[in-house]
Amino acid sequence: MSAFPRSYALSDGNSFYCSCERVFDHKLNHVPVIVLSNNDGCAIARTAEAKALGIKMGEPWFMMRDLCRANGVRVFSSNYALYGSMSNRVNEVYRLFAPRVEIYSIDESFLDLTDVAPKTRAELARDMRSTVGRWTGIPTCVGIGPTKTLAKLANHIAKKNPELGGVCDLTDEAERDRWMRKVKLEEVWGIGAL
Length: 194
Description:
Layout: E1 8-13, H1 16-23, E2 33-36, E3 43-46, H2 48-52, H3 61-70, E4 74-77, H4 80-97, E5 101-105, E6 108-112, H5 121-136, E7 140-145, H6 148-160, E8 167-169, H7 173-182
Parallel strand pairs: 2-4, 7-8
Antiparallel strand pairs: 1-6, 1-7, 2-3, 5-6
Helix pairs in contact: 4-5
């Protein structure tokens, strides 16, 4: 039984499939990259540069082909063997920071941080992000909360607010209330109505 209240982290690989492609080709850094679904049907991963061009998640390839060609977007077919291997590598790093890791999807994992002192959770998350980046090349964001749902919300906040340095801790009730007033529920993928 832990002396600390229940706490979870959700660590998520940023534009994971695109980030995996960038790990093996550094010329892709700072250029727009998208990865297409099975049979190259639609966009399932986009870098920030691709999003800035207006490419939407799930947008069919035939509708964006001309835009991609005109803007030098690098386009990849899905390589699930590569993405699965990189996911395994990232999760091995997570296991160095938390004894209980629950793989939620290929690019997201929950970590039980209940045994970590509240004042050191954000520091641990920053260290974990740095280690994952150095050892695998995958950029991540980490959200921390007293429930998995609130960890998911915290992760969303960490991604959308660069001033947080990729980590948001919502275990403090006052901090949680402050952020919850700012975020529309429908904005949070997997929780809201996106």
